[in-house]
């Protein structure tokens, strides 16, 4: 018997697309749950996923006007947001360095710190002893008790889902567990109350269960993910933890499609790729110094925005990464407004990551070790450990916006808007973050080495 959360992918593996993990090994070709299981060991697999697509905004949970939401944002524990952002940058570093070690200098590295930390938070509530301590350290919660962390996550999720009429952000969690399994009541109560997770007690080894899970995923992502599980889950699977994030945002000022033209994008190795370059001029939150330019492109009424950070030509994305990984707070500060002629590539990109090694590299080791893992707060089963943390991201940015189903301490000198617009042409590798402008939470982050590579 074991705890397992199934990988949640925003695509149909039956289509045969190959996805590689952070070690460069083929992940999904012929993927089936049985292939992930070592028959003689207790297995725990935790999964988190995020789908970003371009689709029409629908049924947003506006809930409160901009001022009301600003007041509510002030009540969100800033330690939770800071911990999530810092965790995201640490994980981004692990993934970026893993790609470079494989020779992928132009790799696009995208992830959702919010999605990963939310899924791990659910598992954290089932952890005890040193396992819990390592998870807290990795998530940045050492000075935050479990109750405070859960309350903070609950408040943040509730606020994010009220993102305005022109944006939609939905978070869904569910826990599927073997019928008859005695999960501890405090764990179940927390999962229901603080993460609003649906609970499903079912025959996990039954033939109908994969279809039921896939139907749940399809519903939460509005059909953008229609298959997550291929085949039976196996006799020794006792629980499945799922997390899904759906984001749909329309630019406050859409880019005119008539202004989009094919232009060169210079890759890290000096070669060029042709990309569709969107363009418009407007008043934006903008900052720059001797090493970089940064701009915030708002969605809807401005509750959400895309932050784009572009290294100056005499600098590089590697140098920008070092600044971001050391201290990203500079890019979460307010920027002055300026008139900017912005050129931004239209791009699609995705990422499929096996996060076991990156998380272990951040200090979360015991959770993956059958002989050391302690998930005694979840159930009285030994051994019980996390077999895999899987994360999938798909992002599509175009003239209309970003629609989805899955920023150094150098002072900024900004003057008033000049007579001629400032120019920011994103024609070389850059960093972006989709952020909640009121809490400063970076929900999705990424580095784009080649926009032409989808």
TrEMBL record:
Q: Which keywords annotate this record?
A: Secreted, Signal
- Any single GO CC term annotated in Swiss-Prot or TrEMBL for this entry: extracellular space
Domain named Serpin is located at 89-451
Localization in the cell: Secreted
- Domain of life, per UniProt, equals Bacteria
As for family, the record states: Belongs to the serpin family.
The name this protein goes by in its record = Proteinase inhibitor I4 serpin
């Amino acid at each position: 018997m074991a705890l397992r959360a199934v990988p949640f992918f925003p695509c149909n593996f039956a289509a045969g697309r190959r996805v590689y993990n952070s070690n460069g090994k083929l992940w999904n070709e012929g993927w089936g749950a049985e292939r992930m299981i070592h028959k003689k060991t207790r297995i725990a697999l935790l999964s988190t996923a995020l789908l970003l697509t371009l689709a029409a905004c629908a049924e947003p949970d506006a809930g409160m006007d901009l001022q009301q939401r600003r007041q509510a944002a002030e009540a969100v524990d800033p330690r939770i947001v800071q911990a999530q952002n810092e965790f995201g940058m640490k994980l981004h570093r692990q993934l970026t360095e893993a790609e470079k070690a494989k020779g992928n200098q132009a790799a696009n590295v995208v992830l959702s710190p919010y999605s990963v930390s939310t899924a791990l938070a659910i598992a954290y509530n089932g952890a005890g002893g040193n396992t819990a301590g390592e998870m807290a350290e990795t998530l940045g919660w050492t000075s935050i008790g479990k109750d405070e962390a859960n309350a903070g996550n609950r408040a943040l999720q509730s606020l994010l889902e009220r993102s305005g009429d022109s944006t939609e952000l939905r978070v869904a969690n569910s826990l599927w567990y073997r019928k008859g399994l005695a999960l501890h009541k405090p764990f179940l109560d927390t999962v229901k109350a603080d993460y609003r997770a649906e609970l499903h007690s079912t025959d996990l080894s039954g033939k109908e269960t994969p279809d039921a899970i896939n139907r749940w995923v399809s519903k939460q992502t509005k059909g953008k993910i229609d298959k997550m599980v291929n085949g039976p889950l196996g006799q020794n699977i006792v629980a499945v933890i799922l997390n899904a994030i759906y984001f749909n945002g329309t630019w406050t000022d859409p880019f005119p499609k008539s202004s989009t033209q094919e232009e060169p994008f210079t890759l890290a190795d000096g070669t060029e790729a042709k990309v569709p370059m969107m363009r418009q001029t407007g008043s934006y939150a903008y900052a720059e110094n001797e090493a970089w330019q940064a701009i915030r492109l708002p969605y809807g009424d401005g509750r959400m925005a895309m932050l784009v950070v572009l290294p100056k030509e005499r600098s590089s994305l590697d140098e920008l990464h070092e600044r971001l990984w050391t201290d990203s707070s500079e890019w979460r500060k307010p920027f002055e407004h300026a008139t900017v002629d912005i050129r931004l590539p239209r791009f699609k990109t995705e990422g499929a990551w096996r996060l076991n090694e990156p998380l272990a590299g951040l200090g979360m080791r015991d959770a993956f070790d059958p002989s050391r893992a302690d998930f005694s707060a979840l159930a009285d089963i030994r051994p019980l450990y996390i077999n895999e943390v899987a994360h999938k991201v798909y992002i599509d940015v175009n003239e209309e916006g970003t629609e989805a189903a899955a920023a150094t301490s150098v002072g900024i000198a900004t003057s008033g808007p000049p007579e001629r617009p400032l120019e920011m042409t994103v024609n070389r590798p850059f960093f972006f973050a989709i952020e909640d402008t009121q809490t400063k939470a970076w929900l999705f982050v990424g580095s784009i080495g080649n926009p032409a590579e989808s």
